[in-house]
Design the sequence.
């Protein structure tokens, strides 16, 4: 099957597959404060991702490009909304454009539409240093996402079967490219062990890409005749994954993503320690089903809700939101306790 056809199948199946399992955000409860002592108009949504300055913690996570006209139109619409709302945006894996020059425009459109916006390039861990430089140059990217998707590849009928050497390639890319590198999962979550290995080779920003939202085992299974069902429930739920990575090292900058579906989910991700929050399918669905204007309205609503919740919590900035008290319950508490993480750090601060 051609790469372009695979890209359009991913979109179709991502939209038809409901979120699977739980991201764990339901296990997070804020401690209500009756005296928030705050003026809503004083609340700032500005955040930083390493050296990158973002006017909002929300960004459009990597999805598409490389599948011809349809993916060009989606990237155009996403870029228009990102520009209007001044949020960052990632493109999908650019490997397709490295293999086929004709696919370049499906990614380049994003920079064309949003000349001054924050845009992330995207490539898999099979990429060489040269590949990485080329995808960054292609869209004059402000950052580079390197995705880790071993389980997706295993379920994908035509997927990779050799995962050796990824860490070394990532290390070489981090040492060479001129923009910040974000290593991300695609919905299976990141563990303390993975985060530690990435940190050791110089990675500074990690996107946990946790379990509970878009599920690439389910998506790839829809493309198979003989289903590999056991991977459908595989992964670290996003809330637990954020804590795993945040507590691995205070110097790691963490992006919370995977199953973030509301502003409240985003607030919980940030309060657990994330500096920014990526969302993919909710933005794609709104764009495809209702158009750019509806996507802009949706992002504006997320910003409004984020502001209101920060108001209730008395947090004027994203930095302050990262320090509000919360209680971790249920399966997420069980997971974190079994893994040796101290949940009282959150409840007694
Ligand atoms: C993705 N995602 C993805 N990630 C990546 O790093 N490179 C890629 O090329 C793609 N491609 C892609 C295509 C489609 C159609 C979707 C829906 C998603 C994964 C995405 O960035 C994100 O990690 C997951 O979708 C989980 O986030 P949500 O959807 O639960 O918010």
Sequence:
């Amino acid at each position: 099957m051609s790469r372009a056809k695979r890209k359009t199948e991913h979109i179709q199946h991502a939209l038809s597959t409901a979120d699977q399992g739980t991201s764990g955000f339901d296990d997070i409860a804020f401690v209500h404060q009756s005296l928030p002592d705050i003026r809503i108009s004083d609340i700032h949504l500005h955040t930083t991702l390493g050296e990158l300055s973002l006017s909002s913690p929300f960004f459009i996570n990597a999805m598409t490009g490389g599948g011809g006209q349809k993916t060009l139109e989606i990237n155009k619409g996403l870029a228009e909304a990102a520009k209007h709302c001044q949020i960052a945006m990632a493109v999908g894996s650019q490997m397709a454009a490295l293999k086929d020059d004709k696919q370049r425009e499906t990614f380049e459109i994003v920079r064309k539409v949003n000349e001054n916006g924050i845009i992330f390039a995207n490539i898999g861990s099979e990429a060489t240093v040269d590949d990485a430089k080329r995808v960054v140059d292609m869209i004059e990217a402000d950052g580079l996402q390197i995705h880790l998707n071993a389980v997706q590849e295993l379920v994908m009928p035509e997927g990779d079967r050799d995962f050796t050497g990824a860490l070394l390639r990532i290390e070489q890319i981090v040492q060479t490219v001129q923009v910040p590198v974000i290593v991300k999962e695609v919905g299976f979550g990141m563990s303390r062990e993975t985060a530690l290995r990435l940190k050791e080779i110089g990675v500074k920003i990690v996107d946990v890409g946790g379990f509970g939202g878009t599920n690439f085992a389910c998506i790839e299974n829809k493309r198979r005749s003989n289903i590999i069902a056991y991977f459908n429930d595989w992964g670290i739920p996003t809330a637990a994954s954020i804590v795993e990575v945040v507590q691995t090292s205070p110097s790691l900058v963490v992006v919370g993503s995977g199953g973030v579906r509301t502003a409240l989910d985003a607030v919980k991700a940030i309060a657990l320690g994330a500096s920014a929050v990526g969302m993919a399918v909710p933005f794609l669905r709104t764009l495809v089903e209702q158009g750019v204007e509806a996507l802009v309205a949706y992002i504006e609503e997320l910003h409004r809700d984020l502001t209101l919740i920060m108001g209730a919590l008395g947090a004027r900035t994203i930095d302050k939101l990262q320090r509000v008290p919360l209680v971790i319950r249920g399966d997420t508490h069980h997971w974190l306790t079994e893994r040796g993480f101290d949940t009282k750090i959150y409840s007694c601060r």
Notes: The pocket of FNR is lined by residues 10-11, 14, 61-64, 92-93, 122, 145, 147, 184, 186-187, 209, 213-214, 257-260, 279-281, 284 (CB under 6 Å). The mean pLDDT is 97. The first strand starts at residue 28 and ends at 30. Residues 292-313 form the longest helix (22 residues).
